[in-house]
Amino acid sequence: MSPDHPASSNPPGGLAALEARLAEDLSLLELPAREWVLGKQHDGGEVLDVAVIGGGMAGLAAAAALKLLGVRARIFDRSPQGLEGPWATTARMETLRSPKQLTGPALGLPALTFRAWFEAQFGVPAWQALDKIDRLQWMQYLIWYRRVLALEVCNDHTIEALTPRADGLVALSVRTPERRFDVYARRVVLATGRDG
Ligand SMILES: Cc1cc2nc3c(=O)[nH]c(=O)nc-3n(C[C@H](O)[C@H](O)[C@H](O)COP(=O)(O)OP(=O)(O)OC[C@H]3O[C@@H](n4cnc5c(N)ncnc54)[C@H](O)[C@@H]3O)c2cc1C
Hints:
The chain has helices at 14-28, 57-68, 114-122, 124-129, 135-148; strands at residues 40-42, 45-53, 73-76, 152-154, 158-164, 170-175, 180-190. The protein is α/β, with parallel strands linked by helices and 196 residues long.
């Protein structure tokens, strides 16, 4: 089974059916909760409720958990889209180390688990036969996770400095390939992984 061609043995339904199931589960649970944090401005500009630095597995899970609670979060990651974390770049081992049964960033939603994602594409027997999760498949799963939860991620955005301010806001110094600018946030989550 090639991680480059994860849909090659699609049973009927596949990911589309899983995404419909997830949408229904979220709807039944009234999730995400309605956004309830009152907006704030600084010098007439936007203030983020939460800035999450790092769009790897931890940053995605943090932003997703906040979103389900009705709190807006914007993720900044210096990597290009789809190359967050070590999975498709610096990793040398071909598989995850953890047993496949750990449910990872699924936040208690069965349709959001790696297992559901895997079975939707390859079927139950393939899951039963699987030993350890392929690291590139884990990356594909995280890409899917971000998409189905519609998480707000700014790729190619490096945070160069954080400055706590007297007014309680935090100024984030952002660098993109084109420019440098500041963003203000009420709260900051550091999810910068081992790099950070
Ligand atoms: C082959 C392999 C197998 C592994 N197996 C497991 C396993 O089975 N279970 C497990 O729990 N862990 C495993 N790990 C460890 C895994 O790397 C970490 O658990 C996981 O990556 C942690 O996620 P994270 O979001 O904290 O950090 P990362 O995935 O490292 O993500 C951090 C992100 O922050 C971004 N970032 C950093 N600094 C900045 C900045 N200044 N501005 C903007 N963005 C920034 C980076 O670009 C990166 O995308 C494995 C690792 C490898 C390489």
